[in-house]
Design brief:
26% helix, 9 strands, single chain, alpha+beta, four-stranded antiparallel beta sheet
């Protein structure tokens, strides 16, 4: 099964997210990650979806998304046409025995401390997916109390119209 990322530009209105996500559910795609945010215009939102599936069915899904009334554009994002970043917040047990090792690991990966107390330390790390996964694996040597990971915040690089197709254009 292949993994795909699409950015769907939609009207910033009540119910639009539900209609877009329902399209994935009806096609039996498993959504691996979902990010929604208002764009530079308060009238539009960008829904970024990471999902797995087959190429032919993926193209059908994209075509079906264009049929939704509040969808303005759909673009498939990959490493060649976008910049990707993930965000990790991780809370670790903070004890005198592991404090220096945690600090060294955080420094090596460029993580910053966002909360520090006697019993726990919370770190923030941004970067490519592999870097985030490597840091999480390293932190398994410590006691992980909580993890929150925001997947793939992507933006189209340089030429925003390279592979972007707007509603009404032929495939």
């Amino acid at each position: 099964m292949n993994r795909y990322t699409v950015a769907v530009l939609v009207s910033n209105q009540f119910g639009v997210l539900n209609r877009v996500v329902s399209m994935f559910r009806r096609r039996q795609f498993n959504i691996n990650a979902l990010t929604v945010s208002e764009t530079e215009s308060s009238e539009l939102s960008r829904i970024t979806v990471v999902f797995g599936g087959e190429e032919g069915i993926k193209q059908q899904l994209i075509n079906q998304l264009y049929k939704l009334p509040d969808v303005h554009s759909v673009s498939e994002l990959d490493r060649d046409n976008s910049i990707s970043c993930e965000l990790l917040l991780i809370k670790l047990e903070n004890s005198p025995a592991n404090r220096e090792e945690i600090r060294s690991a955080a420094d090596a990966f460029g993580a910053i401390t966002v909360d520090y107390c006697k019993d726990s330390i919370m770190l923030q790390l941004t970067g490519e997916s592999g870097k985030i996964d490597d840091f999480i694996n390293l932190c398994k040597d410590f006691k992980i109390l909580e993890i929150c990971k925001k997947h793939n915040v992507l933006i189209i690089e340089d030429n925003p119209y390279g592979e972007l197709r707007f509603k009404g254009e032929d495939v």
